[in-house]
Amino acid sequence: MRVIPHEKFPSVYWIELDDETRKLATKNLVPGTQVYGEKLVRFKDVEYRTWDPYRSKLAAAILKDIKDLPIVEGAKVLYLGAASGTTASHVSDLVGAGGSVYCVEISSRPLRDLLLVCNKRANMIPLLTDAARVESYCSLVEQVDVIYQDIAQPEQTDILLANVRAFLRDGGHAILALKARSIDVTKKPIDIFRDEMEKLEQELKVVDVKILEPYDKDHAMFLLRL
User: Fold this and answer.
1) Fewest CB atoms within 10 Å of the CB: 23, 114, 160, 178?
2) Can you give the pTM of this predicted structure?
3) For the chain, which residues make up each domain, given as ranges?
4) 58-225 adopts what CATH topology?
5) Both ends of the chain: CA-CA distance in Å?
6) Of the candidates 9, 70, 58, which has an alpha carbon nearest to the alpha carbon of residue 205?
7) Per-residue model confidence as pLDDT tens digits over 31-45
8) Residues 60, 221: Cα–Cα separation, whole Å
9) Contact at 8 Å (CB) between 66 and 89?
10) 2-51: CATH topology
11) Cα–Cα distance for residue pair 110/174, rounded to 1 Å
12) In Å, how far are 24, 123, 153 from 7, measured between CA atoms?
């Protein structure tokens, strides 16, 4: 077994196992601590966490060869729809101790699990609030380098754009995990993706789009830049 840097993204790693399979991983910001049952691997005195693309749409987008990953060491990230913290914890690894991850979650049930994660990760800030009500947390969040959104609501594109206007710095990036079936169950997902792209292009540049199958059905990941 060995661990090697990802060929495109310096904060992401490959764990190469003895049976010649490879798994994505991030360097564990809190060694010895798991978040969702992921495997911990120690290599040359550094601990890594395997990153499951079936549990994390961001990992799936990396495996689908997304063009860029602007979540880098030291970055400030606004995470909309953090749920129990599975992907947010890997974002925490990516930005490191010098970065920040503002974790917005509307539901109190997953927030309880998210709080346990945040209590161990000083760079994660939990916010129990509605991502559609930007005014409810505008005084708590600074300008950020990246907005990451994973919210399964019909108005998910409008929610992202409202947060972009409020929090994204000039030249910053947004990453949108778009769930077609949450917008319209009667239309083909590809048609929904096209319609939402047209809406996004009114305010943002679309850098890349990746369909996330087989990892997530009827999902696309949009990489955008202000």
Assistant:
1) 23
2) 0.95
3) 2-51, 58-225
4) Rossmann fold (3.40.50)
5) 41
6) 70
7) 999 999 999 999 999
8) 9
9) no
10) Phosphorylase Kinase; domain 1 (3.30.200)
11) 23
12) 12, 26, 34
